[in-house]
Amino acid sequence: MPTVSPEPGGTEAEVHPGERPRDVTTGLGAPWSVAFLDGTALISERDTARILELLDDGSTRVVGEVPGVAGIGEGGLLGLAVDDSRRLYVYSTGARENRVQRFALRGAPGSISLGKATTIVDGIPAAANHDGGRLAFGPDGMLYVTTGDAAERSRAQDRDSLGGKILRMTPDGDVPADNPFEDSLVYTYGHRNVEGLGWAADGTMFATEFGQNTWDELNVIEAGGNYGWPLAEGASDSGDLIDPVQQWHPAEASPSGLTIAGGTLFIANLRGQRLRAVPVDDPSESTEYYEGRYGRIRDVTVSPDGDLWIVTNNTDGRGDPRRGDDRILSVGLE
To answer: N or C: which end of the chain has fewer CB within 10 A?
Structure first.
């Protein structure tokens, strides 16, 4: 396995935040993920297990509550994704495991509701920390799922465990025929806790990963790759492990969600309390925005109108809530 991933080859121009961010909605409780259904935002709240619909006036209404969520610490209702058939995929923590469920979505904007849950993958290790939880559909139409080592580091190198991995599956939870390991959902391994996924215009796949005490990581993802944990934290220059393309000290980062707009990769940072912008064509560089201004940042995404949405996480038990927290902020790109 090569120590350095192929150089990304983005073809789009870099973009940067423009005017001062404005509130889209406030008063959220530990929001974790945002997905869009026909232009309408759906928001997960980690601790309440509620999925909210964002209304045109900035208020929210409850779409439904995911049954059986029993998260503590970092667990709970986490990632969301919507497929082309208007079905909602949900990653959440149950009593003994993390799982991925699919829900039919009923109704029009303003009256959306959840149908019955279908569990497509279960048995993902769960704990009070390192639960992963990001869901994203790739350009190949497959569902990608990030999992953490659930505080047992040996899981990351065990390809028979679903912990400490990026998983790749069909929308029904089946193993795609071209996955790197036969009859396995495992796409990459050696991860401590991945919470961000995204693809550049040329198909290059990126992921953000929480380190322990030394290095957080931005990685270019290759099918079948071993990303080192717990054998290495950050770059190791080992011939068997893939090194990150950028790394940061946890106090300056703790990278969670990511999104790609044009030729720029934007990364939400929790402990670092900043938004980081990374050029797709040179992912070893970065620019920082809003350090300390909005507190902990859990997720970042591009809205249907092309603005950048920033999701704060000051009510998650580790932040210092401010008036109106938690909130989603919007800023134009230029």
So the answer is: C
